[in-house]
Amino acid sequence: GNALLRRLVRIGVLDEGKMKLDYILGLKIEDFLERRLQTQVFKLGLAKSIHHARVLIRQRHIRVRKQVVKIPSFIVRLDSQKHIDFSLRSPYGGGRPGRVKRKNAKKGQGGAGGGEDEEED
């Protein structure tokens, strides 16, 4: 019983003040669904919708601490919640720019824009 209570508190489903087996019977499915990575990404404002959050996670744009997670049903622990962020390799997190941005940047360098930059130096 104690191991179950500690585990539920660690993942954030149960409050520390309610560490009794009686409170486990009062838990709802929504309590567990709130701890999913997909829901947490949406609630933190990293995604525009719950569906967008799922896509970002599956495309490896989201990390928890230093680990890139691609499973939307990943249960986020209470202590890991503040470490959810964009992956360092993701274009959203300051990594390599996406295909369209790279193409536009290359087009800008090849045209008159590249010549002006050289004159200023």
From TrEMBL:
One of its GO terms (molecular function) is structural constituent of ribosome. GO terms for cellular component: cytosolic small ribosomal subunit. SMART domains: S4 (SM00363). It comes from the Eukaryota. GO terms for biological process: ribosomal small subunit biogenesis; translation. Keywords: Ribonucleoprotein, Ribosomal protein, RNA-binding, rRNA-binding. Residues 35-106 form the RNA-binding S4 domain. The keyword NADP does not apply. It holds the Pfam family S4. Residues 89-121 are annotated as: Disordered. Component of the small ribosomal subunit. The ribosome is a large ribonucleoprotein complex responsible for the synthesis of proteins in the cell. Part of the small subunit (SSU) processome, first precursor of the small eukaryotic ribosomal subunit. During the assembly of the SSU processome in the nucleolus, many ribosome biogenesis factors, an RNA chaperone and ribosomal proteins associate with the nascent pre-rRNA and work in concert to generate RNA folding, modifications, rearrangements and cleavage as well as targeted degradation of pre-ribosomal RNA by the RNA exosome. Belongs to the universal ribosomal protein uS4 family. This is Small ribosomal subunit protein uS4.
